[in-house]
Amino acid sequence: MKLEKYIALILCLIFIVYGYEAFFRMDELLPPILKRNPVWPSTFPKILAIFGFFVSIFILLNIEKKEDSSSEPLDYKNIIFHNYFKVTLLILGMVLYALNLRFLGFVLSSCLFLSFSSFLLGERNFIKCLIIILISTISIWYLVNEVLGIYMNPYPLFLKAFI
Amino acid sequence: MLDGFLIGLETAFSIKNLFMVVGGCIIGTFIGMLPGLGPMSIIAIMIPIAISIGDPSTALILLAGVYYGAVFGGSTSSILINAPGVASTVATSFDGYPLARKGKAGKALTIAAISSFFGGTVGAILLVFFAPTLASFALLFHSAEYFALMIVGLSAIAAFAGKGQVTKALLMTVTGLMLATIGEGAQFNMPRFTMGIMDLQSGIGFITIAMAMFAIPETLFLVLDPSRSETKNNNDSKIKDLRITKREFKEIFPVISRQSIQGFLIGVMPGAGATIASFLGYAVERNIASNEDKKMFGKGSIKGLAAPESANNAACTGSFVPLLTLGIPGSGTTAILLGALIALNVSPGPRLMIDQPDVFWSVIISMYIGNMILLALNLPLIPYIAKILTIPRTYLIPFILFFTLMGAYIGQNNSTELLILIIFGIIATILRFASYPLAPLLIGFILGPMLEDNFSRATQLYDGIGFIWERPMTLIMLVISLLMVVLPTLKSKFDKKKNSYFNY
After folding, report:
1. A73 found inside a domain
2. What average pLDDT score do residues B86-113 get?
3. Which residues of B touch A55 (CB under 8 A)?
4. Do residues A25 and A85 both lie within one domain?
5. At B504, is the pLDDT very low, low, confident or very high (cuts 50, 70, 90)?
6. Domain regions of chain B by residue span
């Protein structure tokens, strides 16, 4: 089975769960007075669930003729393992950045994320890399914080008591 | 109309807004030039900044400037290094790159700039006449017609997705609509599908979805396939002479005029957009060219370069017509702009011209200014701007990811949103591997609340779904949208059967 069909299958299952929730569980919470309305909060999701289910079945059953595979943007089978590894590490870096943004503060966490990903992608001139990253992070922080007026804590949380 | 126009003129020519047009065009050109990054990603990254500005006219002027800049920047990289930054400039590289290989890169850039300028200006003039007419017509619409119109828009986007892609685009649209139902709806004041997660009470942020659908997959693709961000700097494409002769201008003038109008009309149609306009423009000009000219197409014909360039810019302007007059986005880019407008408490639609003439007219006027700036500022600066193509990917990719994450963080100010962004980014990358179009998902997500709102209102007014057959215009529009989706699918099914019959 091709990747597109796996995706259609997963979406089909999601639509079944979504439909189950809309048809059988959502209306339990509805106050009796609202039940007199022609439209309920579950009406639109019910239509979507039915429609989504049938469209995904259409893809699974191959109803529509497909174009040549040349339209595919990139074949996942042709990518070397090394690049998948890099992408996994990059995503991991993004997750760590998201989790530590408040704790480490904007400047430190951004510098760590940027230098890690630059290193991962092949940058080996550490001094040049650090200078570029430090200057750009601080100037971006200044732009966002001072010019645009959106508050972002630049310092790590544990240093806040001292500053 | 004149009053509104004058208010718009005043707003567009304020120092702040002029600065925004210039800034937007320059940023757009810079980033649009980078291979692999489309205008949707750039606009998605710029949205938090635009929203933080607060003033809807200024925000929309900035984003529109970024949009034209990105399309212009895309054509520069198409011509210089044969790496189109955006899909709508792929047709530009057919003749632009051969011209650059002949040592006429400067000439090619000038032709591209002039064609873009003409396309954009003609588009903006047509917009001035089209938009108010359509808006006054749309004032007759009730919620039932709005519901049907949105269905037409959504099906048109699926129908234009291409052979074998209609069901995929439909599935993505429904998925987008499904995601839009998460959280508390305006109509019902009760949380839906939140799974008990407090952060989902207010729904998923539109900026998060926009960035997850475009910026993250495009960047991860640059890592997975390094050839996408390769910049082949060869000496052939050095920019020397920017001048074009009078004869050359005479030669391309009819092409530009034709394609500006055709491109605009294609841009107005929902779902078609700049990419189809540029390819169609190229194809039409090749077909009507004389035999001698025809041979030159693909080998460095100036007509072949002028046609897609004027068509794609006119189409970009044309795509603003349904957005500003009906509040329905015709493309992924205008869908992002619609989301930004809603976030700024502006509801685009026929009443926009009456209620907020400053927003409506200043955007249209800023299009003229934007086009002039692209011509006057970018052309002499192109040799310097082109230096961006030499930025190593070891810095480019981390910074794009960093801006994406920061954009989502600025918009919502919570880390959970970042995690949602990353999860949806991974899902979007997998969807792209399977060639599922992502723009319909975003359009469905943005139109979802409006679609449900109009559907509920019409159902309440008619005490049921009677409005579908009781209002002829609604019925006609729904039938059209059904045909748009069903016909290509049935046709392909029929072709398939016929082919298999002949194979035996």
Report:
1. no
2. 82
3. 167, 170-171, 174
4. no
5. very low
6. 2-498
Whole-complex ipTM: 0.91
User: Which of residues B447 and A157 earns the better pLDDT score?
Assistant: B447
Q: Is A72 part of any domain?
A: no
* A23 and A89 inside one domain: no
Are both A125 and A151 inside the same structural domain? yes
Kindly report the nearest CA distance between residue B182 and chain A, in angstroms.
Answer: 10
Is B444 in contact with B176 (CB distance < 8 Å)? yes
Min distance B433 CA to chain A CA atoms (Å): 6
Residue with tokens 């005043």: B10
- The DSSP line for B410-474 is HHH--HHHHHHHHHHHHHHHHHHHTT--SHHHHHHHHHHHHHHHHHHHHHHHHTSTTHHHHSHHH
Closest residue on chain B to A91 (Cα): B422
Same domain? For A119 and A146 the reply is: yes
B183 has which bridge partners?
B192
Out of B171, B395, B435, name the one closest to residue A71 (CB): B435
Residue of B nearest to A96 (CA): B419
DSSP state letters, B137-173: HHTT--HHHHHHHHHHHHHHHHHTT-TTTHHHHHHHH
Domain that holds residue A117: 79-162
Q: Across the interface, do B163 and A149 touch by the CB < 8 Å criterion? A: no
Do A10 and A51 have their domain in common? yes
Residues A146, A83 share a domain? yes
To the question of pTM greater than 0.90 for the whole model, the response is no
- Would you place residue A7 in the very low, low, confident or very high pLDDT band (cuts 50, 70, 90)? very high
Chain B residues with CB inside 8 Å of A136's CB? 399
* Closest CA in chain A for residue B52: A148
- Whether A84 maps to a domain, the answer reads yes
**Domain count along chain A:** 2
B235/B375: higher pLDDT:
B375
Residues B70, B28 contacting (CB under 8 angstroms): yes
Residue A74 lies in a domain: no
pLDDT per residue as tens digits for the range B339-363: 888 888 888 888 888 888 888 888 8
Of the candidate ranges B159-168, B364-373, B400-409, the one whose mean pLDDT is the lowest? B159-168
Same domain, A32 and A94: no
- A8 and A59 co-located in one domain: yes
Which of A59, A84, A87 is closest, CB to CB, to B168?
A: A59
pLDDT band at B476 (very low <50, low <70, confident <90, very high): very high
Q: Considering only residues 17 to 76 of chain A, which have any Cβ-Cβ distance to chain B shorter than 8 Å?
A: 18, 21, 26, 29-30, 37-39, 41, 43-45, 48-49, 51-52, 55-56, 58-59, 63-67, 71-76
